[in-house]
From TrEMBL:
Its EC number is 1.1.1.194. The keyword Transit peptide does not apply. The keyword Flavoprotein does not apply. GO terms for molecular function: coniferyl-alcohol dehydrogenase activity. It is an enzyme of class 1 (oxidoreductase). Keywords: Oxidoreductase. This is Coniferyl-alcohol dehydrogenase. Belongs to the short-chain dehydrogenases/reductases (SDR) family. It comes from the Bacteria. Pfam families: adh_short, adh_short_C2.
Length: 258
């Protein structure tokens, strides 16, 4: 499925990104990793800071042409400063993707790692539109303060809500070249940043964990990334796959009295 193909994976040094690199390489792909930290998880590694527009532009220039897919997995947890979180999880992700699209192969797949935290995007459209209007030269800190994004991990939730919406909006943006974009929304996953979620969300996170049989693991999510990168997912465009152990179905049935 991946033999002879080349993929770019951000967040390659740990968690879901590291496991995705491992599985893709085991399936015969060449993996180009991007991270702030050194790692041997990829065949080739590019160090970069995805909160810095100049670093992103330099990275996009240095990355090779012809990749068959881009997996945007790098991200910060809700304990990060809200403006920094938006820069990495949304604004930087979008900038890197837009810079790389001209260099991707025709028929390439873009996979964005969203989150169950983005589940309520439809109830936050004003904030989502505001977040999607931001760029590095805008007043990101002011937007965060005006929208009280430091409270209760709201910055993280909004970053994922906006990412899901951006994915849907761009379902056909590069259709003439056959380039598609989809998202994955994991539930709680046992990675190095899981304690950050529990610390930020408190009782809310604990209740979610009681409902689930267990938190997810990177090995649960990486195969979904691999599927969306593969040619087998060619008819999926603008989709958001809930890889959450059934949590979104639990929320939906509860919301609708089912």
């Amino acid at each position: 499925m991946h033999n002879g193909r080349t993929y770019i994976v951000t967040g390659a040094a740990s968690g879901i990104g590291a496991e995705t690199c491992r599985q893709l390489r085991a399936a015969g792909a060449r993996v180009i990793g991007v991270d702030r930290h050194d790692t041997d998880n990829a065949d080739e590694l590019f160090l970069s800071d995805l909160s810095d527009p100049a670093a992103i532009d330099d990275l996009a220039t240095r990355l090779p042409e012809g990749a068959d897919g881009l997996a945007n997995i790098a991200g910060l947890p809700p304990t990060a400063a809200p403006d920094l979180l938006l820069k990495v999880n949304l604004i930087g992700l979008r900038r890197l993707t837009e810079r790389l699209v001209p260099k991707l192969a025709d028929g390439a797949s873009i996979v964005n790692l969203a989150s169950l935290a983005g589940f309520g995007w439809a109830d936050a459209l004003d904030q989502v539109r505001g977040a999607l209007a931001l760029d590095f030269d805008g007043d990101i800190a002011g937007f965060c303060a005006d929208n009280r994004l430091a409270e209760g991990g709201r910055s993280y939730f909004l970053s994922k809500e906006a990412l899901i919406v951006w994915t849907m909006q761009n379902r056909w943006t590069w259709r003439e070249r056959g380039i598609r974009m989809n998202a994955i929304s994991p539930g709680p996953v046992d990675t190095p940043i899981l304690p950050d979620f529990i610390e930020t969300l408190g009782a809310r996170a604990e209740e979610d964990m009681r409902v689930m049989d267990r938190p997810g693991r990177p090995v649960d999510i990486a195969p979904v990334v691999g599927f969306l990168l593969s040619t087998g997912s060619g008819w999926l465009r603008g989709a958001n796959i809930a890889a959450d152990g059934g949590m979104s179905s639990h929320l939906l049935t509860g919301m609708h009295g089912l």
